[in-house]
Amino acid sequence: MLGTYVEELGALGETPDGMYRFMYDEAWQQARDALLRWIDDAGLEGRVDAVGNVFGRLPGSGDGVVLTGSHVDTVPSGGKYDGALGVVGGLAALAALRAQHGTPVRTLEVVALCEEESSRFPANFFGTRGMLGLIAPDEPDRLRDREGVLLADAMRQAGLDPAAVASAERHDLRAFLELHIEQGRVLADEGVDVGLVEVIPGIAWETVTVRGRQDHAGATPMDLRRDALQAAAQMAREITTAVEQEGRPAVVTTGRWTVEPGQPSIVPGLARFSVDLRHPDLGVRDRLLDTVHRICATVAERHGVEVEIVRDKDEEPATMDADLLDVLRGSAEECGASWRRMPSGAGHDSQLMASRVPTAMVFVPSVEGRSHTPAEYTSPADCVRGASVLATALHHLAW
Name one GO molecular function term (predicted). Predict the structure, then answer.
């Protein structure tokens, strides 16, 4: 069943260049509808909340809800396991628990959260923020995607009412467990079955804009140029070197670039690049950000250009719940799975959920550590093992 879920969900939004499934687009709506069918087939109660989160509910006899799940939106040219495994693994776990144990004491729900990746709208963790009551009232009428589509209009196209966003807020959650692929190679390299995530890193996204002078590529001597791209490239190289010298687990990526006017015969007058800086220690992350800013200012002066830095995202590290980690550890041992404690290198819905709800994550290996690529793959055996550990933990928490 789990393998079928992975493959069928992975076909929705799949292209020769990888997965493209963005919040509220056609592929996302197809995924929502497929999940609702599978939820019904599993004997669970399905529903979609005001922001588009999809739920499958196994009602319990007592108060409170234990929630599990992840997200189904993807990065551009992504893979079929990131996020999706946590959703279909949670669904398979609830279906098995219902069949084997009947009615739980505490209600169980599986959720497919929306817009974890910010691939379409600058609305990171939109689904989780909706559940926690953290969406600003003006967001649907303010945020637009790269094509200029208003978030509110996209919601209406998906059958949702942007005026009802506040109704997605929840106050009945007692715990959240997220099954996820590691997206790195620690488990694969060490031959460990599952990872128990202790901390999710603090993440800062910044956009660096460098303004030089646009000139003729043939008639402007090298020593008289104010080439925005060369200055930006020097900044990126020195930033990378500084973070490399800091060592693990510090990481930085300069993955998005814009060059204007972008012609072979013109010295670039503008270059813009992104900085994604991560570290599980907020103090270290912020110290490295200071280094980034100092490097940019120094290089700009050296090249005679102007530089502007804008903060796009600022997420603090999140520590997972110790008691839930103990439940996951015991569940892994019950399932005969080897385990290790570890930090997450990536950001997840769990980091925001942990600010309000006891939260923990369990990782399964990614082959060769690949993720955010069509080459992303986790073996069927590892998928099933992760879902089994999750189901065992949910049984302990709900019965």
Answer: metal ion binding
Give the Cα separation of 33 and 337 in Å (integer). 34
What would the DSSP string read from start to end of 275-314? EEEEESSHHHHHHHHHHHHHHHHHHHHHHT-EEEEEEEEE
| 396 marked among binding-site residues | no
d(CA 152, CA 145): 11
pLDDT attached to residue 1: 79
Of residues 57, 344, 71, 15, the one with CA closest to residue 201: 344
Tokens 């890193």 correspond to what residue? 201
Residue-wise pLDDT for 213-244, tens only, equals: 999 999 999 999 999 999 999 999 999 999 99
On whether 306 is known to bind a ligand per the annotation, the reply is: no
Kindly report the pTM of this predicted structure. 0.86
180 in a known ligand binding site: yes
Does 101 belong to an annotated binding site?
A: no
Cis before 137? omega within 30: no
Name the stretches of the chain with pLDDT < 70: none
Domains and their CATH numbers in the chain: 2-201+317-398 (3.40.630.10), 202-315 (3.30.70.360)
